[in-house]
Amino acid sequence: MHLIEFSHPRIGEHEVAFSWSVTPETELYERTGFYLRFPESVDIGRVPSALWWRILLMSLHAHWTLLRPCRVVLPVRLPQDEAEFWLRLTDAAVRTLEAHAGRDDTRRSIELVGSGEEATLEQQPVQRPDGTVSCFSGGRDSTTQAAMLCELGVEPTLVSVTSPVDWSVEHETPRRRHVFDEIRRRLPVELVEVHSDLRTNYRNYFALGHYGRGVNELTDGLLYLAAALAVASARGLRRVMMASEAEVQENVKRGGSVIQHPHFMYSAVTHRALAALLSPTGIAIGSLTNSIHQFHAQRLLAERYSHVRELQYSCYKLRPGQRACSRCAACRKIALSLMTSGVSPSEIGIDVAELMDAFADWKPGSRYVSGDDDPKQWNPDRAAGRTMAMQELRCLQQLAPERVAVEIDGSRDTEERERAVRIFTSLRDRALSYEVEPEPGFREGYLELADPELRPGLRSILAAHFAPAPPDTYARMLANTRLLSDWIARPLRPCEPARSVPDRTTRLGDLIPGPEPELLPGPGGRVVRVAGTLLDGNELKYVSECVRENWVSSAGAFVKRFEDEFAAVVGCRYGVACSSGTAALHLALAAAGVGPEDEVLVPAFTMIATANATLYMGARPVLIDADPATWNLDPERMADKLTSRTRAVTAVHTYGQPADMEAIRSFAERNGLLVIEDAAEAHGARYHGAPVGSVGDVAAFSFYGNKIITTGEGGIVTTNDRGIADVARELRDHAFSTDRHFWHRRVGFNYRMTNLQAAIGLAQTERFDELVERRRRIAERYRHELAAVEGLQLPPSLDGGVTWMFGVKVAEAFGISRDELRRALAARGIETRTFFVPLHLQPVLLERFAGQRYPVAEELGRTGLYLPSGPTLSAEDIDCVAEAIRAAQVLTPSSA
């Protein structure tokens, strides 16, 4: 455990110095301190002391990811819950770094504490309402953004940071001085140069072994942003802009977490989160380039902002005296893009002959385009790499060798020129062997993240040069951007007051069902059970065959026959039979990849198995209230519970009525979630014509004795995903290896279904339609008999729904309570069941969901019961139940 203790910043006239100690010492630091030195034109005395702490944390919090486990101690107190904001910001960084390194150590092991005076951010005086600071490195993206701002009528203050290091001369060349001087001359801007020694205080190689990246990759962008924030505060400017192109926005939802591009330090996620932190100051953080790719920015420079295109300074490998190194991948991309736009790379100092020589062995497309990789499995770095590789292939295909020959420096001799052209021709021939995709357009949806005042003009600039990309090509990415940044910033938001609920639900005791009433024989000794089974098909024949052939275990032939038959009936390619519906749900979650600390959205109104299966995975059930019209999960409430750890949503088709799968799937697709169908009660139900159990990624059915299809005990996983089916099948059987016995590569379960059970299941499935129809007729008769009973609310009847149990709600107008009605029915030999007790009221889950209230689920649990509904029920039985209900109402004191 590292202890990191910060001292108060030392603020001078033009310099602020930060220092800290680390115990035990770490190889990360050459020294534990750095400064920011500002020119005389910036009065840093106007920067509030509370803001310097955020500038410090902004600059250094990424280092904590490299020093885990660690305890960070500040000599000031942050406002309530801000510490959690910084820890979430580092959590997001850790998940991304670990994912790209092929590791999974994402446990939170950073602590942030403080003592002393509270450092509260306050509103800053605004000197210029349109005042804007724009980070400026001299590279393609920051130069393009500066030019855009000027075109939009904003005359920005450009802030650059000079922080030399011994492994690069980038910050010390005459070329950089020239760029700074010329940008002032060619654009209506002021340039403020801030000096710092931060990049020399750490050993840049420290993170290479662990994450394969230099420490500067984690911190350089944040250093620029911190310096720009200080200048904005000192000058009373309300906007800080940092260029952040489309490649950096790449992300993917994996294992319940959003994994970002490795350069997340200047992603829209980071900007949005920090903007939320700084909102009390009135200073906004954003970007004009989120929606465009690197090659879009390059084209804008080449074609729209030609007056500054030769100033781009994008090569950190150059040597003293060079304008560009002409030997790195960055120079290669720029040169190809410029030549495709008809601009000579020599304008920015790239020597095409030297470039060709450096890439004589390059194989365009080999790293990111070739092969049979599944794009869905790519990490964001690879996705961005593929986009850029495709653009290089497009450029190579469009450029003729003669065009390249023109660009070769005239001082080269004939042999050098011919060699360069031969190399280019070879590269072009390789590029021509690929079928390249059309160039992607700009991501118009990302303009929603831009400053509203600048958005219309920005859209016009981009639309003049590029077509908009289809929204569905980046919708999930944009949703993940919002999701993760909102999750990071959520601790900063004031808690909303709890919504009031009706007085009758304020006491939890009122929501708990009464004890089970004693079931007495009714008139004539009649007893009407709540459920039953119908086993008059081939059940006995098939079970006898099992016994006769001595195949009673899970190895018998009926298991496979039942799996195939049932899967076909519910529209799926694969079925994996198992020992119970709960086991099926557990297998579905495990096979789909839900894991520890993931969050799964589940209905508050459902049987406890839905939550239990989630808990078996070490995941967290997150409750969603019911829709009062359908009794199913209310899709409109899902967004309220979404976090960066949300991995899946379990849609329960309650009592046989299909959940709103269109809304659920749409929400899941936008947010990268799995859809698990809990179809335990819904055999035969359909949603928009498709059988439930085939609509989500994977589904679970139950075959308990009271279900529409039964095997006594049993369940099945259904899916159209072979990978999920294979994993579920393996896990079901102790995860036995397929190539040798008693060999296990993962922890499995003993969830097998016996041949005897499967034999019954097959016989039941053969009469699937008949058993579903019997339940439909029972529901139809109940509706006819009970329609006129005042105060009795009949169940929803949705398109495609089936009836597992016929449930009713007993309203106050009925005259007696639900529990009183149950006792009256039991006294006449009629068995009933209460509706499910909502999950947050279950004794075993009370602590987990303490303080949470779900009014619709609570009302259903308090007033609902289901009536006898088994397939053996006769018309006379139903009439008997209906008469007993009417009699119970007539006998109430209020109606006497």
In round numbers, the mean pLDDT is 91
Coarse morphology: elongated
Q: What share of residues is helical?
A: 25-40%
Q: Which strand-content bin applies to the residues?
A: 5-15%
Compute the number of strand runs. Answer: 26
Structural class by helix and strand composition: alpha/beta
Q: Give the biggest sheet.
A: 11 strands, mixed
Radius of gyration: 34 Å
Q: Uncertain regions: pLDDT < 50 for 5+ in a row?
A: 495-506, 891-896
Q: Please work out how many helical segments DSSP would assign.
A: 27
**How far apart lie the N and C ends?**
75 Å
What's the helix and strand layout?
Elements: E1 2-6, E2 10-11, E3 15-23, E4 33-37, H1 49-64, E5 70-74, H2 82-100, E6 110-114, E7 128-135, H3 140-151, E8 157-162, H4 174-186, E9 190-196, H5 198-201, H6 208-211, H7 215-235, E10 237-241, E11 251-254, E12 257-260, H8 268-278, E13 284-286, H9 294-304, H10 329-340, H11 352-358, H12 380-398, H13 401-407, H14 414-432, H15 455-463, H16 475-489, H17 539-548, H18 557-569, E14 574-578, H19 581-592, E15 599-603, H20 609-616, E16 620-624, E17 646-652, H21 661-671, E18 674-678, E19 686-687, E20 690-691, E21 698-702, E22 715-719, H22 722-732, H23 755-766, H24 768-786, E23 792-793, E24 806-810, H25 818-826, E25 833-834, H26 855-863, E26 864-867, H27 875-890
Parallel strand pairs: 1-5, 5-6, 7-8, 7-10, 8-9, 10-13, 15-16, 15-17, 17-18, 18-21
Antiparallel strand pairs: 1-3, 2-3, 3-4, 4-9, 11-12, 14-22, 19-20, 21-22, 23-24, 24-26, 25-26
Helix pairs in contact: 1-2, 1-7, 2-16, 3-9, 8-16, 9-10, 10-12, 11-14, 12-14, 13-14, 17-23, 18-23, 19-20, 19-22, 24-27
